[in-house]
Design a protein that fits this description.
alpha+beta, 3 helices, 4-stranded antiparallel beta sheet, Alpha-Beta Plaits, 41% helix, single chain
C-alpha cells in the first residue's frame, strides 16, 4: 500500500528558505520516488491556521517513513520550518 505525507501549511513567510528547501527536496524526493500533489484550495474546509494542503505520495508506507527519518531530509526540513508553519501527518493507504 502507498504511503503519504499530508502537509497542512501556512503561507510562505521566508521565500529564501522555501527556495532552499525545494532545491534540497528535489534529490530526496527522487531517491524515495515521491510525488508531490498540491490539493485544490477548496480541499481545506476547516482550519484555524493553515492556508494550503498538499499530499506527498510514496510507493509504500515504508518509503514515507524512511524519507522522513533520512538525515538528508532532516537537513532540508530545517529550511521548511523556517519557510512556513506546518503540520505533517504520515498515513498508509490509497488516496484517490
Amino acid at each position: 500500500m502507498k504511503g503519504y505525507w499530508i502537509i497542512l501549511g501556512s503561507d510562505v513567510i521566508d521565500p529564501n528558505a522555501q527556495q532552499e528547501y525545494s532545491r534540497l527536496w528535489t534529490s530526496i524526493g527522487e531517491k524515495y520516488s515521491a510525488k508531490v500533489r498540491f490539493l485544490e484550495p477548496g480541499a481545506l474546509v476547516e482550519s484555524e491556521f493553515s492556508t494550503r494542503v498538499l499530499a506527498v505520495e510514496f510507493p509504500s508506507y515504508k518509503h514515507a517513513i524512511a524519507c522522513y527519518v533520512d538525515p538528508a531530509y532532516s537537513k532540508a526540513k530545517q529550511f521548511a520550518l523556517l519557510a512556513y508553519k506546518r503540520e505533517v501527518i504520515i498515513i498508509e493507504g490509497d488516496l484517490a
